Amino acid sequence: MEELIKEQDYNEILENIKAPPQSKSPKSYNIKTLVFDLGGVYFTAGTPIAIKKIESLYGIQDKRLLKYLFSSDTDSIGSQVRLGLITIDEFETQFRSKLRIPKSKNHSIWQFWFNSYVPNPNMPELIQKLSKSGKYRMVIFSGNVRERIEFLDKKYDFLKYFDDTVFSFDYQYNKRHIEFYHELLDHINCKPKQALIIDDHRSVLENGQSLGLNGIQYSYTEQLIEDFEKLNVLVE
Questions:
Q1: What domain range is 226 assigned to?
Q2: Which of 6, 55, 188, 201 could make an S-S bridge to 33, C-beta 3.0–4.6 Å?
């Protein structure tokens, strides 16, 4: 004969049953401004490519110095040219002097550097669609060289798809400086939570997030489009 379950036993059983977890409603995004990096996002990361070309062409032995000269490290000529403190011609002169590249070598260092930047696959088409949709403010946020921007825009005609630009050479800050991000806030024309930074470096996204900006780390264009969908950013 089955044992009868008393009323208090029912109560005890009910107390031990865990309620199913409440499903959280998806976070609501209202992105109004898209902030794009250039090197590594719109374009390939050209500097490492240029370093390999120059290393091979000139037989550079001091690879550490070569990388340092191109870098954004404090006091490097790479940093100085990005901050607009020296011109690309001054960069070239100092670069050749420090690496002892003879004048008989007539190849231009800056041309190797600039030509190593080419648009990432499908990125120009994506930018054009976003720009022409009129749904988003399009901003460039880049540690860059003034002459390189002029060179690449002449070659690829991409600046016309953006509403605003925030370049390191205009403000003498790079992405290591939090002040550079404060400058960006003056250009997004919306609340920080309504802006989205697309960059290939996690540290940039973390700096932006510290000021309330959203971020996507770029790997390739198809992945970016998928991440856009998750944040309700409409491409078409």
A1: 33-45+118-230
A2: 188
What pLDDT does residue 53 have?
92
In the structure encoding, which two tokens stand for residue 173, read together? 């800050």
Model-level pTM? 0.85
Residue 141 has pLDDT above 90, yes or no: yes
pLDDT of residue 190: 97
DSSP 199: E
Residue 73: which residues within 8 A CB-CB, separation 6 or more? Answer: 79
- The number of beta carbons lying within 10 Å of the beta carbon of residue 218 is 22
Burial class (CB in 10 A: 0-12, 13-18, 19+), 74: exposed
Give the amino acid at 45: A
Kindly state whether residues 50 and 157 are assigned to the same domain. no
Please say whether the beta carbons of 166 and 17 come within 8 A. Answer: no
Closest by Cα among 20, 23, 32, 13 to 191: 32
Residue 94 lies in a domain: yes
Segment 107-114 shows an average pLDDT of 90
- Report the alpha-carbon distance of residue 30 to residue 53 in Å, rounded: 44
Query: Domains in the chain: how many in total?
Result: 2
Share of the chain above pLDDT 90, in %: 81
**Same structural domain, 181 and 217:** yes
Rounded Cα gap, residues 22 and 15, in angstroms:
18
Residues with Cβ < 8 Å from 107, sequence gap 6 or more? 57
**Residues 145 and 210 both lie in one domain:** yes
Task: Tell me the mean pLDDT in the region 201-214.
Answer: 97
pLDDT in tens, 115-130: 999 999 999 999 999 9
